[in-house]
TrEMBL record:
Name of the molecule in the record: F-box protein 22
Highest taxon listed in the record's lineage: Eukaryota
Alphabetized PANTHER family for the sequence: F-BOX ONLY PROTEIN 22
InterPro entries assigned: F-box-like_dom_sf, F-box_dom, FIST_C
SMART domains referenced in this protein's UniProt entry, alphabetically: FIST_C
Lineage of the species this protein comes from: Eukaryota, Metazoa, Chordata, Craniata, Vertebrata
GO annotation terms (biological process): positive regulation of proteasomal ubiquitin-dependent protein catabolic process; protein polyubiquitination; regulation of skeletal muscle fiber development
Cited Pfam families: F-box, FIST_C
Residue span(s) of domain FIST C-domain: 213-348
Species this protein is from: Tetraodon nigroviridis (Spotted green pufferfish)
Length: 379
């Protein structure tokens, strides 16, 4: 019997490949070194793993590093994908308690936590693009099930990491600009202009209230406002990333800038609604979020993204989790993530059949005391 099993596992690719579909990716990569057959089977399995995944965590860490790092160290062993791009967000209070701002390569920009950046780099593939954001508040869906109720953490330690694999029909390109690096050429190279396949732009602006920040934001949003892509994001506290990903940024220490993801390709879909100051109760929040249904976006392999003002949330509604709960009522199986920040970027953008509701000039993209609720589908 053992010899028969050994023969099958050494020669019958269809059986080996079926077995490997039940193996988490980190173990799969180790298994691939056993023999040529297993290596080829593992490669084919990896190509089929095109569903996004995430890790989230909240509550005070007992180890001295951010609670997200602790959870990620455990859960990254269990994921069934090879991350190509990771978007991580953590609360800025905890990050700043444990971080130092340093100059990289003589005056380059970097906000580096000895724990956060090093742990992310050590846990994720070297080829993975890591984009880290710190912000006053975090919105997350707990690990375990996408149907778990999302949570709004305006205080306390919280964070999440969204992991995106290579996906057919989807191109994810990270970008980073500051006053020294933004230009029409740079925007084109990032796929933000003259790109007919551009569908969604997620952007996170840091320190825009410094002198020159308004002009910088105009340079960014004017061309984006003319595109047909969905634009969504917010004003955050800071951005962080492994050293190698900052090296070409040509940015001054402590200046303003923007990081983000340009999502292109025929399989990418997006829609957003704006919860403005007229939305003052749970019923109004649910009615506004329900308008996203008109976009008819598939709910599989889809993310909900919530970019809210720090002035909303519990103090605005006099109860917790109003807007995230409204999202869950309308989209019970779609995980929701996001932030509370110091300004919101986005607009009402619903595409239905041949009709598009979209008002995305630069001025209408910038808001305060609002929430931009977004759906992004990855095919």
């Amino acid at each position: 019997q053992d010899s028969k099993a050994s023969y099958v596992l050494s020669n019958v690719a269809v059986v080996v490949e079926r077995i490997l579909t039940f193996v988490p990716t980190k173990s799969l990569l180790r298994i691939a070194s056993v023999c040529k057959l297993w290596k080829n089977c593992a490669r084919r399995v990896l190509r089929t793993q095109q569903q996004l995944s995430y890790v989230s965590a909240s509550g005070r860490s007992k180890t001295g590093i951010h609670v997200l790092c602790n959870t990620l160290a455990e859960d990254v062993e269990k994921v069934f994908l090879l991350p190509k791009t990771v978007l991580a967000m953590v609360d800025c209070d905890t990050l700043h308690e444990r971080s130092i701002v340093i100059g990289l390569n003589e005056g380059k920009l970097g906000c580096k936590s000895p724990d956060m950046v090093d742990v992310l780099s050590s846990l994720l593939p070297k080829s993975c693009d890591i984009m880290g954001i710190s912000t006053p508040g975090i919105v997350l869906t707990p690990c375990g099930s996408s149907s778990s109720p999302p949570q709004e953490h305006q205080e306390g330690e919280a964070g999440f990491a969204i992991m995106l694999p290579s996906m057919d029909g989807v191109h994810v390109k990270p970008f980073h600009f500051c006053k020294n690096s933004i230009s029409p050429t740079a925007l084109k190279e990032a796929g933000l202009v003259d790109n007919p396949d551009l569908r969604v732009v997620l952007l996170f602006v840091y320190s825009p209230y410094q002198s020159g920040g308004r002009r910088f934001l105009k340079q960014l949003l004017d061309p984006l406002g003319k595109s047909k892509a969905l634009i969504a994001g917010g004003i955050v506290e800071s951005a962080f990333s492994p050293r190698s990903q900052w090296d070409n940024s040509n940015c001054d220490l402590g200046g303003y800038g923007v990081v983000g993801l340009a999502l292109s390709g025929p399989k990418v879909q997006g829609a957003s609604v704006l919860l403005d100051q007229d939305v003052v109760n749970p019923k109004g929040a649910e009615a506004t979020v329900r308008r996203l249904k008109a976009a008819k976006i598939p709910e599989g392999n889809t993310l909900g993204l919530m970019f809210a003002c720090v002035g909303r949330g519990r103090s605005y509604y006099n109860q917790s989790d109003v807007e995230s709960s409204a999202f869950r009522k309308v989209f019970p199986t779609v995980p929701l993530f996001g932030l509370f920040g110091n300004g919101e970027i986005g607009c009402d953008r619903i595409v239905k059949d041949d009709y598009t509701l979209c008002d995305s000039d630069r001025k209408s993209l910038q808001h305060q005391y609002t929430t931009v609720m977004t759906l992004v589908h990855f095919g």
